[in-house]
Amino acid sequence: MSVIGYIYTATGYQYIGIGKKIYDSTWAMRQYFDRIEKKYPDFKINKLAFLGPKEDLMKEENGIIINAVYQTGLFEVLKQQKINPEQISGIKSGELVAFSNAGGISYEDLIMLLFKKRELINAEINKEKFIHILINSIDVSKIEQIINEIKKKVIVEIVSYNAKDSFIIICEKNTKEKLIDIFKKLHGNIIELPFEEFSNFSILKPVAEKLKKEFLNLKIDKPIFRLISQTEGIYYDNVADIKEKIFDYIYKPVRLNFIIETMLKNAVNTFIEIGCGTFIGRFVRKADSGKRVLSTHDFSSLSTAVKLAN
To answer: Which of 37, 200, 243, 307 is an S-S bond match for 159, by CB 3.0 to 4.6 Å?
Structure first.
């Protein structure tokens, strides 16, 4: 018997044509794209997602919106196929999408909050000064020790703990090469992530506080599935807990390793990655290669997920 857990991805994996085949073949997907097209005509989501240009599609401020629309459509497609999770979580804005899909807030309010987030962040900080870097093959304790030593001189933080030897950091671009040299000397595998969602960064706490005020003015309900906090890796106890903590991800690091661990401990044997890419699935397999991991990054993978999850 399948015990299903959904983990919602973040941005960074958009591609021209995202959702197009699913859009063309299902009302479940089409309705969510078209509602944004109608309400936010200046955003031109259908043109951007289906035709590009790629450089605009990949921009973080566009990606968080398109990703949320695509993920909501995927959720509806799976729901219509009678595939539902027992537990859900998400990384970065994916947690907010997961909460909305679970009935916590309306789709319209979800999109409003994401547009508000990008507006506040653009007003708060110059994102062009920073870069995200994925570091693999170095133990967490070593990374933390190094960062604690050098952050007295430069801005650098861990924004995501993926596994015991995999992390994402954020740093200023003018210190990037020095940091990369340090990690390469430790035999780390380094990958720059130019399109990563801008969040999980301590200097963004004022943005989290402003978003929380917006959030508390909305109609908020208890999610119909168990929801796991991305910053703590534990289940939210109640709606009050969600109201208090759901925007912690803006300024606290993702604990993907804890999310996976919690799901594994609580009987999940089928993980479905909701959104573009297969990044999360790699770490699920790393934690337990015996568990089923399904992706939904395109029409083919979604069709496979539907077949295998039933």
So the answer is: 200
Residue labelled with tokens 């007295």: 152
What gap in Å lies between CA 192 and CA 204, rounded to an integer?
Answer: 21
pLDDT tens over the chain, length 310 residues: 789 999 999 876 678 999 999 999 999 999 999 999 999 999 999 999 999 998 898 888 899 999 999 999 999 999 999 999 999 999 999 999 999 999 999 999 999 999 999 999 999 899 999 999 999 999 999 999 999 999 888 999 999 999 999 999 999 999 999 999 999 999 999 999 988 999 999 999 999 999 999 999 999 999 999 999 999 999 999 999 999 999 999 999 999 999 999 999 999 999 999 998 889 999 999 999 999 999 999 999 999 999 998 7
> At 227, is the secondary structure helix, strand, or coil?
strand
Q: Quick check: is 182 in a domain?
A: no
**Rounded Cα gap, residues 147 and 280, in angstroms:** 24
Our count of domains for the chain comes to 1
Residue with tokens 């799976």: 78
CATH number at residue 14: 3.40.366.10
112-130: burial string, b at 16+ Cβ within 10 Å, e else: bbbbebbebbeeebeeeeb
**Is the peptide bond between 53 and the residue preceding it cis, with omega within 30 degrees of 0?**
yes
- Asked whether residue 137 is assigned to any structural domain, the reply reads no
Domain hosting 48: range is: 4-124+201-263
277 within a domain of the structure (yes/no): no
Which residue from 76, 74, 44, 72 is spatially nearest to 57, judged by alpha carbons?
Answer: 44
Could you give the angle at the alpha carbon of 156 between the alpha carbons of 212 and 60, nearest 5°?
Answer: 55
Q: Is residue 167 part of a domain?
A: no
Burial of 146 (0-12, 13-18, 19+ CB in 10 A): middle
